[in-house]
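Technical annex, item 7. During the second reporting period the consortium partners agreed on a shared format for inverse folding records so that results from different sites could be compared directly. Each record opens with the tokenized structure and is followed by the designed sequence. A conforming record, contributed by the partner at site C, is shown below for reference.
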């Protein structure tokens, strides 16, 4: 107890009585138009990346659990490559894809092409940011989804099959709610990680929250106050995501008994 009070007093002194934080500068930039605009860019980028990444994750999971060896192989190679590649490298590879393939040909492989599109016309800073992060999220979300499916009892699948339910309806009515309950914590962590990883898109010149903050403190040299502004908004949006995660877990945990560690020990 005494140690906790000591730590609280040290933290209070560090944040309140340390003039180097320059809280007046933080307050002046916290709700400035330029910061809010690029905060919205960050949110927009996160939402689009999450949607595209989850769609890619679902498709990869289907391939990963397919009875066809070629689909399983493609999915496994994709997951293996993304696990080995840092997201920053993935962003750079997508952004400079035009150097590898200057023209994207639409047609028959090793045959005639019906259309030719310059790669640089398709891959802008914004699209490169979305594609790069979505490819990264797709691999990790695929493994989370596959783990959730494997966590479902085999009897659930047999019951759905015996009732004559098609796979889509079975997942919608019976298997899906159970799957969401299992994968929500891990999947929410990945989404939050992607939200924080949007700061990496500054290397390809896309303006988001951190890029704007860096541009401002490069002019006025108020590094710590401007970084504090960025951290504040990251904390706010992460807290909102965690609140949504908690509500989702509560929604799909109805009917399941939760046991705490203390309760488990008491029952022994």
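Designed sequence (site C submission):
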């Amino acid at each position: 107890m005494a140690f906790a009070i000591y730590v609280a007093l040290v933290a209070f002194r560090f944040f309140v009585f340390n003039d180097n934080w320059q809280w007046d500068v933080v307050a002046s930039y916290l709700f400035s138009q330029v910061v809010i605009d690029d905060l919205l860019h960050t949110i927009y980028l996160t939402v689009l990346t999450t949607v595209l990444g989850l769609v890619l994750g679902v498709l990869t999971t289907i391939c990963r659990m397919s009875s066809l060896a070629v689909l399983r192989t493609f999915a496994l190679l994709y997951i293996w490559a993304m696990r080995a590649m840092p997201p920053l490298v993935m962003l750079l590879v997508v952004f400079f894809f035009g150097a590898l393939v200057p023209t994207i040909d639409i047609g028959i492989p090793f045959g005639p092409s019906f259309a030719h599109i310059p790669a640089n016309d398709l891959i802008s800073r914004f699209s490169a940011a979305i594609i790069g992060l979505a490819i990264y999220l797709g691999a990790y979300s695929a493994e989370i989804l596959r783990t959730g499916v494997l966590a479902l009892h085999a009897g659930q699948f047999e019951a759905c099959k015996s009732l004559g339910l098609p796979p889509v309806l079975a997942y919608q009515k019976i298997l899906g709610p159970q799957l969401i309950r299992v994968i929500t914590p891990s999947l929410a962590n990945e989404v939050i990680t992607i939200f924080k990883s949007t700061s990496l898109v500054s290397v390809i010149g896309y303006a988001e929250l951190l890029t704007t903050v860096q541009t401002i403190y490069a002019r006025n040299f108020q590094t710590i106050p401007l970084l504090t502004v960025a951290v504040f908004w990251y904390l706010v949006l992460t807290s909102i995501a965690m609140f949504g995660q908690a509500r989702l877990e509560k929604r799909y945990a109805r009917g399941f008994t939760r046991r705490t560690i203390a309760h488990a020990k008491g029952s022994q």
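The chain has a mean pLDDT of 82. The chain has one domain: 22-104+117-256. All partners now use this format for quarterly exchanges.
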